[in-house]
Amino acid sequence: MSIAKSARAPLPLVDEDRSAGRFRVNRDAFLSEEVLALEQERIFDRCWLYLAHESEVAAARSFLTRDVAGKPILLTRDKDGELRAFHNVCTHRGALVCRERSGTAPAFTCPYHAWTFSLSGKLNGMPGREGLAADANDDGSLNLRPVARLEVFRGFIFICFDTEVEPLLDYLKESADYLAYVADQGPNGMEIVAGAQEYAINANWKLLLENSIDGYHGMPTHSTYFEYLRSRDGAPAKQVKVGNVGWVKNLGNGHAVGESIGEVPWGRPYARWVPGFGEASRGEIDTLQAEIMERLGPERGAVVATGDRNLAVFPNLVVNDIMAITVRTFYPAGPDRMVVTSWALAPIGESEESRARRLRNYVEFLGPAGFATPDDIEMLEAAQKGYVSGGWNDVSRGMLLEKQSKTEELALRTFWRRWNQLVTDGSEEELVGP
Q: Which of UniProt's keywords are assigned here (predicted)?
């Protein structure tokens, strides 16, 4: 898609009146090609974006390829162990240099004209080198083009296409604390479980971001899952009242989280036991919880082991650290379609039994055929179809409340305020408020 640099957002996209407790989003934000072009230019080309986890390229000479915001990216760990990210595009005639998803390699050879590049991106050679001037690559212009910025936080690898972007830790603000809660679960570190779930949704990408931090839809949309848990665990029906569970927080820079500690009916492999895990698993899970408490202290240990959090890192990284750890990104393929990739994250070295419980939880709820994801996709696609009638989405729940439970919409407003800043005027002003 070509980006019209002079494009202007249709206004208003967001209508907020804090004194009246009103927050609305113009449904054109989900339909407009012009808005999508502005998102590419002002958000995806300028913000830090999640690329991969260090465990996916743990060994020297390993690599992976991935599309990020429509751009093909090659991530390598060179022979000296340094991480590098390149545009996966040959500097000769623009073909993809590497067409494999992952692996190990001593070098990369473009299949079009056999130009060869090292894992550090240097042009190693080509057929007919004498056809170019002797100093043709003295300036490095024929080497693979590196991505402007790459930084790592607790194993999470981020890239940015803007050289002027602030350092990653400054960008993450308080969301870094929540990524650290995830990273702290494994005493030997964390790893992506091999494989990924990939699917598409016929809805605007922002709808999945909203849905991931929207506790309000949980009980009505996923009632079948809660009934299943009650049936499986042999427990009496537990009615979770709207507004009574957990809380939401604005983490700065558009990042937000909905979280709770020990108030929900599902279990966590690390480390909250439920009857559905089986009596034989209780001892292991209790031992895992004790290890976390001893290693991190009782206060932080309780958050890490028994807490649940749905974290949104602006613009499009969601970490669902609930009954398992799901890492998801999603990118627009048009105003009314997105592509989604989901990975399972797990402690390195956990037992086979614990890994089996984790993966069952992973696919059971948030997998493409699980209890939640098909329900969510149906609702998002239904909303997208409705937007052609125009109007506004109301995102006002909780604006006038002091206590913000997981069912209030503070997390959604946090995203939309930052989104509106960047799309309309590029302001860096910090936004706060309920």
A: 2Fe-2S, Dioxygenase, Iron, Iron-sulfur, Metal-binding, Oxidoreductase
Residue 326 burial (CB count, 10 A)? 24
Per-residue model confidence (pLDDT) at position 244: 64
211 contacts 376 by C-beta, under 8 angstroms: yes
State the residue range of the domain holding 63.
Answer: 49-164
Global pTM value: 0.93
CATH code, domain with 200: 3.90.380.10
Starting at the edge strand found earlier in the chain, the sheet holding 22-26 runs: 14-17, 22-26, 392-394
251 plus 366 within the same structural domain: yes
Structural domain contains residue 181:
yes
338 shares a domain with 297 = yes
Q: Do 267 and 222 contact (CB within 8 A), yes or no?
A: no
Indicate whether 307 and 187 sit together in one domain.
yes
Nearest to 85 by CA among 255, 69, 93: 69
pLDDT tens-digit profile of 376-427?
Answer: 999 999 999 999 999 999 999 999 998 888 889 999 999 999 999 999 875 5
What angle do helix axes 282-296 and 352-365 make, rounded to 10 degrees? 90
Q: 264 and 371 in one domain?
A: yes
pLDDT at 10: 60
Report how far residue 382's alpha carbon sits from residue 10's, in angstroms, rounded to the nearest whole number: 24
Cβ distance 271 to 285 under 8 Å?
Answer: yes
Q: Are 312 and 206 in contact (CB under 8 A)?
A: no
Rounded Cα distance between 106 and 79, Å, is 8
The answer to whether residue 17 sits within a structural domain is no
